[in-house]
Amino acid sequence: HMHKRPKRPRTILTTQQRRAFKASFEVSSKPCRKVRETLAAETGLSVRVVQVWFQNQRAKMKKLARR
Q1: Average pLDDT in the 1-14 region?
Q2: So what's the pLDDT on residue 53?
Q3: What pTM, to 2 d.p., does this model score?
Q4: Is the pLDDT of residue 19 over 90?
């Protein structure tokens, strides 16, 4: 692509943030928008970061289930 935007640095999660995500993931692997927004507010991260984490976590679980 021609319109090169500088890459956003990888978000580093704190232990508390990771715990909050994991606890929520146990309840639902596909949280609704409200849940994502609440998690984002609680952790101080953007909704996008929450969304991507859940996507990655689901992919990881799927990958683990395959083997």
Answers
A1: 87
A2: 98
A3: 0.86
A4: yes
CA distance 24 to 65: 20
CA distances from 1 to 4, 6, 7, 11, 46 (A): 7, 12, 13, 24, 26
SS (H, E, C) the chain: CCCCCCCCCCCCCCHHHHHHHHHHHHHCCCCCHHHHHHHHHHHCCCHHHHHHHHHHHHHHHHHHHHC
Cβ atoms of 57 and 25 closer than 8 Å: yes
Rounded Cα distance between 6 and 48, Å, is 18
Tokens 């990655």 belong to 56
Report angle CA 21, 10, 39 to the nearest 5 degrees: 25
